[in-house]
Amino acid sequence: MSAIVEAEGLTRQFTVRDGARRRRVLAVDDLTTRISAGEAVGYIGANGAGKSTTIKMLTGILVPTSGTVTTCGLRPVKDRRRLAREVGVVFGQRSQLWWDLPVRESFRILAAIHTLSAAAERARTEELVERLELAGFLAVPVRQLSLGQRMRAEVAAALLHSPRLVILDEPTIGLDVLSKQRLREFLVAERRAHGTTLLLTTHDMGDVERLCDRVLLIDHGRLVYDGDLAGLSRTAGAERVLTVDLTAPSADLTGIPAARHLSSEANGLRQRLAFDAESTTAARVFAAVAERAEVVDFTVEEPDIEDVVRRIYAARR
Amino acid sequence: MADGIALRARLRPYAVVLASRARSQTSYRANFALDLVSSLLSGLVELAEVWVLFHAVTRLGGLDFGQILLVFGMADLAFSLANMLFGHCDRLPTYLRAGTLDIFYLRPQPLLLQLVTSDISLRRLSRAAVGLVALVAGLAAGDITWNVGTVALLVISLVSGIATFAAMFVWAGGLQFFLVEGEEMTNAFVYGGRYAATQPASVWSRPLKVVFGYFFPMAFTGFLPAVVLLDLPAPAWLPAWLGWCGPLAALWAWAMALLCWRWGVRHYRGGGG
């Protein structure tokens, strides 16, 4: 598969003024990675870990201090204008729509900016309006939209020129559950229909779980994990949690092999047990519980990815 | 013919944005009318300053009131039109804070061209009207021998004047990439320059002469061409033939502006570019 992003030793240093002293900060430190066409990659890390700086280097806004990067086969800084036709970026925190204009009008201007033909403009606008359910507020000025509506319009705006690579920077920030859900469903469908490559930075692990088949974790500018989501949890040794509802109030279920009692509710009617997926299985823990009490119902929670990331960070300190 | 079509296609993105700006500003009639009035008032206040001054004196720098009106009219008309088209360039920090500049980077057009065509302040038309009235009054009051030469000088000077002031806004934008609170500093030159330009350069103090006579060629937007038009004695440090050099002054101003802009953009992207 052809590479959409190829970074080789990509590094970016900033000089920060600290009173009178100047300090050098490595925002991105020796990043080497390759993203193939059609992949969906979650780029995660704490605030200030270097995610936005990376995106700015991939799109030609920032010049790398050292290292190289090619995006869609182009050199981002030198070929910025050509690259702009291949990449669409959604910034959750900034708008590329015109505040005082109806949504439809913003799309029309963007089509002109990307010099789409009239036919292409019509076809693509219709497709996006339908799939993102924008029809209800096309005539409404952007400033009157709800956040959920605005984000859908932003996504449409960034995808209007049918880019091969779509970069989403915190696309679901501040959205309610339903809006998040819709947006994710759209992105899945868009990827399926056009083979679009997705790169998204997010704090919302739900985004990563539902959209991405690969995760890049960055800490202080360094790539610390590259692989699938399950592997990320394994790396961190994160625990799964078994919750059981019992028929009668029981004593705390301590002493079950390879499991740890977390909490009990309602005199022990509901109890929670944590276990490490590496050393035991849910079935084995459940069997051990069933020997000691009668179980009515149970659920198994997967590890919270935010917790996983916290653990990885903590282990590196 | 084919070239014409290609050019139209290339200009279309900018034209569409500008048209949308114009439409949104004029869509609320009452609001737009108020904007026009307030802009008109600020223009009238500037003009009143000159008028009040002439209650105290009869001549300023060897020019009478009618002659000053000509200087004021040329410079102020050029400034107002440049401000209408380029004035938003010196509010770069606003664009930086809103992330608009990064958005520009993600579009397939040159950055500066996108910035310039991202807005237009139509309300400044009324301000330009004040300059135009002063200019016409100054021309009527002055003792001008009308011929092809004087008409050409007037037109050339106005166009170069607009270009020179436009360059000032771009210059200011370029500097604001790396000056903290840069707006304050650049405003001193942009608006100070406008003010100096509407006064006869013959009364400028020495620092003003250096800054606005040569470095920022403000004398070329009003005073120098007026000296030639009215056939006045020129001050020793600015020979009268300079009155014809407006286009050179504009070129100089733009060279400086583009240099600063490049400098600023490099700083922003943080590399050799």
TrEMBL record, chain A:
A Gene Ontology BP annotation from the UniProt entry: response to antibiotic
GO cellular component terms, A-Z: plasma membrane
Subcellular location per the Swiss-Prot or TrEMBL entry: Cell membrane
Domain ABC transporter as annotated: residue spans: 5-245
Gene Ontology MF: a single term: ATP hydrolysis activity
InterPro entries found in the cross-reference section: AAA+_ATPase, ABC_transporter-like_ATP-bd, ABC_transporter-like_CS, ABC_transporter_ATP-binding, P-loop_NTPase
Highest taxon listed in the record's lineage: Bacteria
Keywords: Antibiotic resistance, ATP-binding, Nucleotide-binding, Transport
Membrane topology: Peripheral membrane protein
Main location: membrane
Keyword Transport: yes
PANTHER family: ABC TRANSPORTER ATP-BINDING PROTEIN (PTHR42711), ABC-TRANSPORT PROTEIN, ATP-BINDING COMPONENT (PTHR42711:SF1)
Protein name: ATP-binding cassette domain-containing protein
Protein source organism: Frankia nepalensis
Automatic annotation (TrEMBL), chain B:
Pfam families named in the record: ABC2_membrane_6
Source organism (scientific name): Frankia nepalensis
InterPro entries assigned: ABC-2_transporter-like
Domain of life: Bacteria
Name assigned to this protein: ABC-2 family transporter protein
Transmembrane segments: 32-54, 66-86, 128-146, 152-179, 211-229, 241-261
Keywords: Membrane, Transmembrane, Transmembrane helix
